[in-house]
């Protein structure tokens, strides 16, 4: 029998832990361990995927590397733990991972009832549908009575049901535990359509299908899916670090600090904002319990938010997603970071 | 005899030890439960079974009872439990039939038949069930034609990637006898009307049946081998034909040996049906996984799964034990 073994282990570890034990300083534990433990997905191209040598890449992965660079000064000091969507919350709750950076949608239920907190949004997404081009379907509203492949343990199932009810479609979901199984079932033709976040559809179409042109992503987005990392509740200092590393990467893009220019700017820039961001004037690191050059280290490790986006999911990457909503607020998008000061 | 309290009495001492053991076990369980709840509270994780009455909000692909997404989680669990029960019952019946034939086949006079049965048993029980399930599912979904090009197997029977569609009587909503038949027809992308067995159900049923039948065949073979050869020889000397000997002499005596291990195989089949999540069949584990993710109640959802399997297993064991008492040797 194989239920979510990790959930069971997590539940068991909750049962065995002493109740009075304080959540503890996550940062102290990380420094003592010399490693950030980061929960990621088991393989969504562009967000988190391991190559044949076990090297992890992707937008979610880079968030963890940036945090490792900011806290430990070395982006390589991360241990990635691949988690299925059922395992992810339990793994974070039970302390198995320090941060969950695994294309997880920010919702009220998750933020308020799991003992976890979202620390920001790293990708603004929406749920869409993909159909085979030969089916001639042009709109999601034509999917009357169709079977739709979907991965379990996501917000996707509920959105699909809501959309189906609202439009009287009566679609039949076929729910798979694993992303890979859902992909395989869709490409075998078991389902008339495949639904997940639009970024996921693009990733699947470009990486898994034999000929991407045979599959069409329908124009409708049926939900808002702001994806972001989470941490455990009860350690506000750690939550602040994770939150400000993300904001910092966005600020770095806004003020033109790139992976290539960060060292030069640190040495020469007289721009007060840049000096503050890189710690050459004020010491914002002290306030977070980090080194003075925390943000410089993070940008040097993975680049600013724009560079992270372009490298992993941008138009020139294999996933080829447009920047769209995820552009900076002053470039037509909605990515807006509170000031780092 | 009046039992007087004394440490010298072995019986009373035994009672005290057992009482202490039960108390220690109870204390341990209470401690774990208390600790879990305290930990969940300390971490701000909400717990409790109250969520079962909230609307589930997700659809289920196949349901034996009427189910809509606005029904409570409890009903969704009932749908999942019934789906598990459905595949388990069908699997038990089919695996028993196939297993019995294979087991008897191991004693066939025809060497080819005997060999074929042995090859079957060794092949199917030595390949992990999950692989078999994935293979059957892949074969069904890859090779069957799309819904709009469904294969006709006689009147009203359609087979396609939507599964096996068959006509189904239309039951009036207010009870009474069926008023007619609903026929499956191809409508655009899908097949409407009638009833259908989905590829997920068929793959799971096929996988569980073929796998468990191999074990049941061995159980049946052991049972038959346990009947003394003298019984068969005696039947032959009375002039009973082989078929009658098998039905009236060998099998009734073999059943005594067969039934207890057969019960274990039925339990295994039921529990193995939890592998359904791998191929998208909405069994109780699949529903619990979804509920777990919507609500975050990991401990509660895992407890629900355990309760369902424990309930099914205890029921199966009780039924089989009752049957075993009927076929067991009666000492007169």
Output the keywords.
heterodimer; A: 341 residues; alpha/beta; D-Maltodextrin-Binding Protein, domain 2; five-stranded mixed β-sheet; 14 helices; B: 332 residues; alpha+beta; MetI-like fold; four-stranded antiparallel β-sheet; two-stranded antiparallel ribbon; 9 helices; flat
Characterization of the model:
The complex is a heterodimer of chains A (341) and B (332). Chain A has 341 residues and is of the alpha/beta class. Chain A has helices spanning 5-16, 26-33, 59-72, 88-93, 108-113, 156-166, 179-188, 198-208, 236-254, 262-268, 272-277, 284-288, 294-302, 305-312; strands at 36-41, 49-50, 56-57, 78-83, 99-105, 116-118, 123-125, 127-132, 147-151, 172-176, 193-197, 215-217, 225-232. Chain A has 14 helices and 13 strands. In chain A, helix 9 packs across helix 13. The longest helix of chain A is centred in the C-terminal third of the chain and has 19 residues, at 236-254. In chain B, the strands form three sheets. In chain B, strands 1-2-3-8 form a four-stranded antiparallel sheet. Chain B has a two-stranded antiparallel sheet with strand order 4-5. In chain B, strands 6-7 form a two-stranded antiparallel sheet. In chain B, a hairpin with a 5-residue loop joins strand 1 and strand 2 (158-160). The radius of gyration of chain B is 26 Å and the shape is flat. Chain B starts with 9 loop residues before the first helix and ends in a 5-residue tail after the last helix. At the A-B interface, helix 1, helix 4, helix 5, helix 6 and strand 10 of A face helix 1, helix 4, helix 8 and helix 9 of B.
């Amino acid at each position: 029998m194989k239920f979510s073994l990790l959930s069971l282990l997590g539940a068991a570890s909750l049962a065995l832990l002493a109740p009075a034990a304080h959540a503890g300083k996550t940062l102290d534990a990380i420094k003592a361990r010399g490693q950030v433990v980061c929960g990621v997905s088991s393989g969504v191209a562009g967000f988190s995927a391991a190559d044949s040598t076990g090297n992890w890449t992707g937008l979610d992965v880079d968030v963890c590397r940036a945090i490792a660079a900011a806290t430990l000064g070395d982006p390589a000091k991360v241990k990635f733990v691949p988690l299925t969507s059922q395992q992810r919350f339990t793994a974070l709750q039970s302390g198995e991972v320090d941060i969950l950076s695994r294309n997880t949608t920010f919702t009220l239920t998750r933020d308020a009832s799991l003992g976890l907190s979202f620390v920001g949004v790293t990708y603004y997404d929406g749920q869409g549908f993909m159909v085979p081009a030969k089916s001639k379907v042009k709109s999601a509203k034509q999917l009357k009575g169709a079977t739709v492949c979907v991965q379990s343990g996501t917000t996707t199932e509920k959105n699909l049901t809501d959309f189906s009810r609202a439009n009287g479609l009566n679609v039949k979901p076929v729910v798979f535990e694993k992303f890979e199984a859902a992909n395989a079932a869709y490409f075998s033709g078991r389902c008339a359509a495949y639904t997940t976040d639009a970024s996921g559809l693009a990733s699947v179409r470009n990486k898994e299908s034999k000929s991407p042109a045979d599959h069409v992503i329908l124009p409708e987005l049926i939900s808002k899916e702001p994806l972001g990392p989470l941490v455990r509740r009860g350690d506000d200092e750690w939550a602040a670090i994770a939150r400000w590393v993300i904001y910092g990467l966005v600020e770095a893009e806004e003020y033109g600090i790139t992976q290539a220019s960060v060292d030069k700017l640190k040495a020469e820039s007289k721009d007060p904002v840049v000096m503050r961001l890189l710690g050459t004037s004020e010491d914002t690191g002290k306030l977070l319990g980090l080194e003075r050059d925390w943000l410089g280290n993070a940008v040097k490790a993975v680049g600013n938010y724009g560079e992270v986006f372009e490298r992993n999911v941008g138009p020139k990457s294999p996933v080829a997603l447009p920047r769209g909503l995820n552009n900076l607020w002053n470039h037509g998008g909605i990515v807006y970071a509170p000031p780092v000061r | 005899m009046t039992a007087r309290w004394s440490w010298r009495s072995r019986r009373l001492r035994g009672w005290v030890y057992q009482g202490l053991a039960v108390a220690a076990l109870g204390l341990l369980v209470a401690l774990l439960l208390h600790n879990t709840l305290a930990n969940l509270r300390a971490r701000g994780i909400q717990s409790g079974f109250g969520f079962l009455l909230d609307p589930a909000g997700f659809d289920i692909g196949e349901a034996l009872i009427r189910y809509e997404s606005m029904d409570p989680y409890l009903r969704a669990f009932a749908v999942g439990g019934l789906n598990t029960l459905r595949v388990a019952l069908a699997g038990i019946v089919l695996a028993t039939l196939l297993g019995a034939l294979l087991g008897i086949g191991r004693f066939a006079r025809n060497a080819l038949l005997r060999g074929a049965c042995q090859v079957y048993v060794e092949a199917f029980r030595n390949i992990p069930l999950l692989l078999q399930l994935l293979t059957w599912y892949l074969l069904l979904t890859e090779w069957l034609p799309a819904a709009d090009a469904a294969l006709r197997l006689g009147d009203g029977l359609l087979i396609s990637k939507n599964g096996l569609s068959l006509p189904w009587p239309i039951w009036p909503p207010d009870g009474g006898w069926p008023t007619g038949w609903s026929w499956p027809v191809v409508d655009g992308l899908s097949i409407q009307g009638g009833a259908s067995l989905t590829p997920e159900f068929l793959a799971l049923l096929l996988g569980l049946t073929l796998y468990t039948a191999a074990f049941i065949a061995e159980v049946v073979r052991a049972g038959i081998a346990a009947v003394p050869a003298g019984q068969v020889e005696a039947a032959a000397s009375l002039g009973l034909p082989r078929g009658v000997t098998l039905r009236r002499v060998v099998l009734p005596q073999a059943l005594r040996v067969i039934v207890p291990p057969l019960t274990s195989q039925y339990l295994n089949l039921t529990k193995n049906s939890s592998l359904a999540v791998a191929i998208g069949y909405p069994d109780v584990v699949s529903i619990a996984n979804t509920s777990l993710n919507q609500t975050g109640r990991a401990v509660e959802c895992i407890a629900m799964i355990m309760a369902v399997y424990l309930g099914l297993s205890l029921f199966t064991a009780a039924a089989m034990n009752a049957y075993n008492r009927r076929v067991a040797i009666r000492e007169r």
